[in-house]
Design a protein that fits this description.
The protein is mainly beta. It has three domains: 70 residues, SH3 Domains (SH3 type barrels, Roll); 62 residues, Roll (SH3 type barrels), CATH 2.30.30.40; 123 residues, Alpha-Beta Complex (endopeptidase fold (from Nostoc punctiforme)), CATH 3.90.1720.10. The chain has four helices and 22 strands. Strand 19 and strand 20 form a beta hairpin. The longest helix has 13 residues. It is globular, with a radius of gyration of 19 Å.
Length: 272
């Protein structure tokens, strides 16, 4: 059974208990697989194989609708936050606020001002948001390697100063693997949402001598994205937010605790 997340951000817990550990977040419009239903909770599996308990009220449980949504909802919120309004005027009432990475369907409307887009939500409701706040989904392998490397870094940097949140993956709060996996997902690539290289996903291990912009640095329980010139961006529990640090001992933002504990380097483009 498939379902669509209908909350701005749906918490995925380790147990069917709102006080249990937050292990992940599902963003509006994501399609998940229901593994088990338990009272007011559903145990769900995400497209990147993460599993957790989500409140049933935050889901549209309908396999046919979920499949149709996957095929037709081809736009993503690219702004940190975007209000969806009842009409194409800033004074209109708000239907919902969506965060970067939320999925919507764009409806044709030639009468609209160029500033606005008419969108359909997973619930079937129709609303309006600014056209510049949405972008078409990027499909894997559409970008050249050079463009992908540049864009994935710029996407990660768009979360700078976002507060650290264990299990988070939105501009409201994000953790280390949430940052890297969202940056890749927004550029058309699904990677494992954890601080390790996993079989069945496209990231492959390379040597640190081969590292390039957009590759991933792995540490014990932590992951970061390499920016080039010895710099990396990451969501740091120690730093409390998304920030930039350096592998260079002479740099003001050098962190010895990370630079000396690299366990692996991963790339979407393994050396041939």
């Amino acid at each position: 059974m498939k379902a669509i997340i209908k909350s701005m951000v749906a918490n995925l817990h380790a147990e069917a208990n709102a006080n249990s550990e937050l292990i992940d977040e599902g963003l509006y419009g994501m399609v998940v697989e229901i593994v088990e239903q338990r009272d007011d909770w559903c145990y769900v599996r995400t497209p990147y194989r993460y599993e957790g308990f989500c409140k049933s009220i935050e889901l549209i449980v309908d396999s046919a609708k979920a499949t149709e949504w996957q095929e037709e909802a081809n736009y993503i919120i690219s702004q940190g936050f975007a209000d969806v309004l009842l009409g194409p005027k800033i004074q209109n009432a708000k239907l919902i606020t969506l965060v970067r990475g939320s999925i919507v369907r764009v409806l044709p409307n030639e009468e609209l001002d160029q500033e606005w887009a008419m969108i359909e939500l997973a619930t079937g409701e129709v609303g309006y948001t600014r056209k510049q706040w949405i972008s078409e989904k990027v499909e894997q392998n559409v970008l050249t390697e050079e463009n992908f490397r540049e864009q994935v870094v710029q996407t990660a940097l768009s979360y700078l100063t976002t507060p650290y949140r264990w299990g988070g993956k939105s501009p409201l709060g994000i953790d280390c693997s949430g940052l890297c996996s969202m940056a890749y997902m927004l550029n058309g690539v699904i990677i494992y949402r954890d601080a390790k290289i996993a079989d069945g996903f496209p990231i492959k291990e390379i040597s640190i001598e081969q590292i390039q912009k957009g590759d991933l640095l792995y540490f014990p329980g932590h992951i970061a994205m390499y920016m080039g010139d010895g710099l990396y961006v990451h969501s740091s529990l120690g730093g409390n937010e998304v920030s930039i640090n350096s592998l260079n001992k002479e740099h003001i933002h050098y962190r010895d605790d990370l630079a000396t504990t690299i366990t692996a380097v991963g790339s979407l483009f393994p050396a041939k």
